[in-house]
């Protein structure tokens, strides 16, 4: 886990990259009928805008909300590190799925022009994204990001 604002920003950049890239390809695959070279290409092309949007949401809004909720209701700030990681990760996934599902739905209706089905796409995206994002975050993205982060930036190397 990051220990200061600089580390937190670096960690967020890495984590957001992994999650947004994976979820972009996943969402394009959902709406195009399956995983294919074309869905990977489309996910990659839509990635930069989604990444910037997700970073802004994460950095300015969701991380504060998630940490506040986790430390108020789920775990103490001086609690076991694994409990803190799991609590904050779960608390991050819920609002990010809701926000990014709306982003994906908007992206979809912009391409199709079917604005009347925006609420339905958004509401159907939320559970489908949640069942992918939570396990991916807890089992793959989180551990890989933490490992890469600490290999690149050993504790105490990034100054506040």
Automatic annotation (TrEMBL):
Top-rank taxon: Bacteria
Record-linked Pfam families: DUF2798
Keywords in alphabetical order: Membrane, Transmembrane, Transmembrane helix
TM annotation in the entry: 9-30, 42-65, 85-105, 117-140
Organism (species): Anaerovorax odorimutans
InterPro entries: DUF2798
Name of this protein: DUF2798 domain-containing protein
